[in-house]
Prior knowledge:
- By secondary structure, the protein is of the alpha+beta class.
- It has three domains: 61-171, Sandwich (Immunoglobulin-like), CATH 2.60.40; 199-237, no CATH class; 242-329, von Willebrand factor, type A domain (Rossmann fold, 3-Layer(aba) Sandwich), CATH 3.40.50.
- 27% of the residues lie in helices and 35% in strands.
- The protein has helices spanning 2-31, 33-55, 221-227, 255-271, 294-306, and strands at residues 61-67, 71-73, 78-86, 94-100, 113-118, 125-132, 138-150, 157-171, 184-186, 189-191, 199-209, 231-237, 242-247, 276-281, 285-291, 324-329.
- The strands form five sheets. It has a five-stranded mixed beta sheet with strand order 2-8-7-4-5. It has a four-stranded mixed beta sheet with strand order 15-14-13-16, covered by helices on one side. A three-stranded antiparallel beta sheet has the order 1-3-6, with no helix packed on it.
- Residues 184-198 and 317-324 have low confidence and may be disordered.
Amino acid sequence: MKNKLRSLLKAWKYFVFILLILLTFSYAMFQGGFVSWFLFYSFLPFALYCVALFFYPMKVLQVTRVLEKNYYQAGEPVKVKINIKRSNPFPLFYLLIEDEIPDNSNQAHHSRYERILFYPGFKKEFFYEYTMDKLPRGEYFFHSITLRIGDPLGLFEKEKKISSEERIIVYPSYSELRYSFFESQFDQGLMALKNRKLQDTSMVVGVREYQPGDRFSRINWKASAKRNEMMTKEFEQGQSNDLFVVMDGNPTKQFEAIVSFTASLLHTVLKIGTRTGLLTFSNEQARFPIKEGEQHFQQLFYHLAKIKAKSSLPIGVPSGKRGFTTLSLFS
């Protein structure tokens, strides 16, 4: 329906444009005199400018959207820069730029477009900057930029839509927390291990079949002789500082605070090198195994940026396992 109305309005403007030329010319021809011809010659430059705009190639206009970065924190302002270049200095009366902003940006003006009006004249290069304030956490997509040019009387207008796909991710807000390790007590004293694979080699708890990669010093030769196959000693494994976080996704007023605290906790423990895992309950369960490193950090924060309070599932906290600590966050 909107496209039909636009087509009708465009056809109506063409009709009015041609009608004005015919009326002014007819008036000058039949009326004669200085006034009638003055009106005709006064309108003639506008008519010629409209004809020139009709043949003006919109492809000479090049528009790019520049973002300072692709990752932000909730509440951080997002600065967007629009650069416009063209290859010829044809005088443009005005240039209207509409940047299609993400639908879920929740901007104060509640508009899907950021409109910028230029009066470029003979300029071949110019730019414009605008800011999107207080974006909530989430994933945002910029889609297209629309350009419009026209004449001073508003009789003629040309439009071009340029695809300009951009994506930004707004992570939840987080802060530094004070975090101390849990400790485990052995017969020999207190012991807290940063590497889960470290074992107390003085305490043998059993034997198992030999696997490629096992040390020869840990082979149990007596058990191997009895079973007629290679057997390896198993040792008591110490408690590591690995952390597994379980987060509830029920729709409550405290949900954003829970997400922010979870992000703060993960940021703190991953920064000090602790292996961390995450289990969340939203419209579906999402599980991230216990790992460490920058890539794991990016995956966790990307998930926290997109998660929504849509949990309708019963919360089942994993039973405690040897080797890591489970921390549950419920609303």
